[in-house]
Amino acid sequence: MKKAWILCLAGVLLLAAACGTPAPANPPASEGGAPAQQVLRFGLDVDPETLDPRHARDVSALRVFELCGDGLIQLNEKLEALPSLAESWENPDELTWVFHLRQGVKFHDGSDLTAEDVKYTYDTIRDPAFGAVYAANYASIKEVVAEDDYTVRFDLNEPYSPILANNMELTIVPAEADSIADFAAKPIGTGPFIMMEWAKNEKILFEANPDYWGGSPALQRVEFYTIPSNDTRVSALEAGDVDFVHTPLTPQDVDRIKGDARFQVDELTGLGITFAAFNHNSPVLADRQTRVGLSHFLDKEVMARELSQGLELPGESILVPNTWFYSDEVKSFPYDPEQGKAILAEAGWTDTDGDGVLDKDGQKLTVRLSTYTQDDLKMQYVEYMQNLFAQGGVDARVVTNEWPTFIADVQAGNYDIAVFGMLNLFDPDKYMYSYLRSTAGSNWGGFSSTEFDALVEEARTVSGEAERRDLYVQAAAINNAEVMHNVLVYQGYVAMYNNKIQGYVPHARGSIRSFQNVSIAE
Amino acid sequence: MRHYFFRRLLQIIPVVFGITALVFFIMRLIPGDPALVLLGTDATPEDLARMRETLGLNESLWTQFFSYIKNALTLDFGNSIFQKEAVMTILLRSFPATLELSVCAIIISLLIAVPLGVAAAVKRNTWIDYAGMTFAQLGTSMPVFWIGVLLIMYFSVHLGWLPSFGRGEPLTRGLGLLVTTGSPQVLLTGLKHILMPAFSLGVMGAALISRMIRSSMLEVLDSDYIRTARAKGTPEGKVVMKHAFRGALLPVVTTVGLQFGALLGNAIVTETVFSWPGIGRVVVTAISQRDFPLVQGGVILIALAFALINMGVDLLYAVINPKIRAGRERGAA
């Protein structure tokens, strides 16, 4: 008994000592750092799943590769392709792309980058035996040929003009990657920072690559810390435990940090959208007029301004702002509940029995509004939509489930209106071709417009951006008129950081590639 | 005693097997397809079919179950679908962090609850009693995540005393270094990081345990043997701590044992608020992705820990109360 008390006492003393020591409350890796040290600590929301660029599918892994890897090209903030490992490229005919590699580029293990590494990266990701999740995204590539050490030729199965945005940013791995033990935990790339350590669910540490082909970075170290709670991540910024956080953030936190002179807040329209997918196979929604009538009930202004507190913008079409394919000509149906009611009345929906709910042929106008529980904002949108619909005399029922259940229901066609979203819209092809085309694998809503199909198929075969944009503008207008996916809001992107950070360029998709040019002021 | 110990150990086997079967079938009965979550929404039906085949999800449930059990018996719990790493490796990495957090939370609970409960009982119906029990009421009603956020706001953001997130260093490593090199630095880093998460997790336990100690002490303080001890002229301090407290300990041990199990579960919230790299976060993420092997492995491990703690509590009874020991030995013989 006496011993136990002594132990307890010792414990208390230790805890008191820990509490009382006025040492800086920094994570251990940055201890001993003088203030002038060029270290950037980054608050990450989710730990990556794997760091093999060919297997990775989460945004956190992308952030890692932006520091330690390079692709053949890189997309700038307007999504235009710039040279990276490839200094130049040409497209001699619609089935051939030739890339000329930069010479003298070295991997972090000291080996030279050659065409063989590029071929190996693309061969493995397309190999069914390798089991890469995104193998299907590379289906248009027939063969990759290393013509010489610094020339790679891609032969295609079919014309595929989105190839630069969709396929050519893939991080190149060394040809011996699969014989390197633990490559998926400690990838070797050619990027401006070398990955040193990954303590899972805790931190990922990088050191500057002095031999980087683009010049040695000013930062000596970059440290990622995984902080899953949005609140804690912002608190860590305020406490000085991290220097940089970005989307996802809670609107209230953004407002608070904006009022704090220690921090810089950058707000951009991001590359994501949130939409209401209308199920054309649902008995109630098969009729176009009913879909149009319902669309007039959607007050997107309030969703963006009040619910997201200005983090998101009211959506008009699937062509997101600040990109080469944006168009302000394509408009969605305006918020006008009276007109909505009139259109529904034309479609035969009237309140015959005076119970406040519209009906037709003895059947009530009932729709299910579904979304998933992991996203608070989408839950609020759906609840608000229920309210708007109810005011218009529509019996709307909210169905929320966690993501796997939600998406399995959507895939099985078991929904009326499903609210979800898309991120990283580098190129409209990915979205329009695989979700909205009549025969697309992910067309779960029974959309069928031969005109739409012809436009997005043609857009794959023409090359210039202006020509492709024209086709996508027409296709987006059809999507709006037919009410396939009704885009509710454009998602915003917010970066908040210590204003000692200099040289950072915000990027709508959250890219931190500009860290290679960042320095910390005294 | 040894007989009893082994019998209790054997009883764990059906419990863990039952849990394994339950979690295996429940995970597969709830809607959601790991192949779809893994491949994303733009996967074609052919890709999905191929991935299901690769993951072995095409086999009948029974075939999957038996091959799982067969492998599990050799401690092979498969690979995580999403992290492409052995489930065992992931669990062995994250479980010690949760265990460390739970143990520290229990220590903090006891450090608060024992003095509070004893004082409240001895000074019954005085302001000490009322203040103590008001704390206990507050402690049980404040949600862990809320305490956590408040602590971070005050001690990290406002005062800048404690780190706002992360584990820093494992305490065991810190202790090891303290013993071998005499340097307390690593241990202090670890302690600074664990203080707030352990406190916010421990408060609820402290509240429950102090109430249990108070009521249990009150009962004992009224009993004949305490009156006898006092009559013999034993000093009051000794009466309270040696005679009464020890007698009141039995129900308290039960509560602490249950509380410890509950901590393993509650740790999930604390781990998220304080970015603690424990098993709770791993399992919750795995559930939301339908990462079957990882969920199964995690639940089995937590169930095993729970069962072992319960067994420990039962054994402690015997240590504390010789009457129980004698009874069990007769029963076992």
Mean pLDDT of chain A: 90
The main sheet of chain A comes to:
7 strands, mixed
Residue share in β-strands of chain A: 15-25%
Count of beta strands of chain A: 21
Quickly describe the structure.
Helices cover about 30% and strands about 25% of the residues of chain A. Chain A is of the alpha+beta class and about 525 residues long.
Question: How would you explain this protein's 3D organization?
Answer:
The complex is a heterodimer of chains A (522) and B (333). In chain A, helix 12 packs antiparallel against helix 13 (450-461). In chain A, strands 11, 12, 13, 16, 17, 18 and 19 form a seven-stranded mixed sheet that branches. Chain A has a four-stranded mixed sheet with strand order 1-10-9-8, sandwiched between helices. A four-stranded antiparallel sheet of chain A has the order 4-5-7-6, covered by helices on one side. Chain A has helices at residues 2-20, 59-68, 115-126, 163-167, 230-239, 251-258, 288-295, 300-307, 337-346, 376-391, 403-411, 428-436, 450-461, 465-482, and strands at residues 39-44, 73-75, 81-83, 86-93, 96-101, 141-148, 151-156, 193-199, 203-208, 221-226, 244-246, 263-278, 313-314, 359-360, 363-364, 366-372, 395-401, 417-422, 485-498, 501-502, 519-520. Chain A is built from 14 helices and 21 strands. Chain A starts with a helix and ends with a strand. Chain B has 333 residues and is mainly α. Helix content of chain B is 80%, strand content 0%. Chains A and B meet through helix 1, helix 5, helix 11 and helix 12 of A and helix 2, helix 3, helix 5, helix 7 and helix 9 of B.
From the structure above, extract its key features:
heterodimer, A: about 525 residues, alpha+beta, 7-stranded mixed sheet, 4-stranded mixed sheet, 14 helices, globular, disordered N terminus, B: about 325 residues, mainly alpha, about 80% helix
Task: List the topology elements.
The complex is a heterodimer of chains A (522) and B (333).
Chain A: H1 2-20, E1 39-44, H2 59-68, E2 73-75, E3 81-83, E4 86-93, E5 96-101, H3 115-126, E6 141-148, E7 151-156, H4 163-167, E8 193-199, E9 203-208, E10 221-226, H5 230-239, E11 244-246, H6 251-258, E12 263-278, H7 288-295, H8 300-307, E13 313-314, H9 337-346, E14 359-360, E15 363-364, E16 366-372, H10 376-391, E17 395-401, H11 403-411, E18 417-422, H12 428-436, H13 450-461, H14 465-482, E19 485-498, E20 501-502, E21 519-520
Parallel strand pairs in A: 1-10, 16-17, 16-18
Antiparallel strand pairs in A: 2-3, 4-5, 5-7, 6-7, 8-9, 9-10, 11-19, 12-18, 12-19, 13-19, 14-15, 20-21
Helix pairs in contact in A: 7-9, 12-13, 12-14, 13-14
Chain B: H1 2-29, H2 34-39, H3 45-54, H4 61-73, H5 87-122, H6 127-141, H7 144-158, H8 171-181, H9 185-221, H10 224-231, H11 236-273, H12 279-289, H13 292-320, H14 322-332
Helix pairs in contact in B: 1-13, 5-6, 5-9, 5-11, 5-13, 6-9, 7-9, 7-11, 8-9, 9-11, 10-11, 11-12, 11-13, 12-13, 13-14
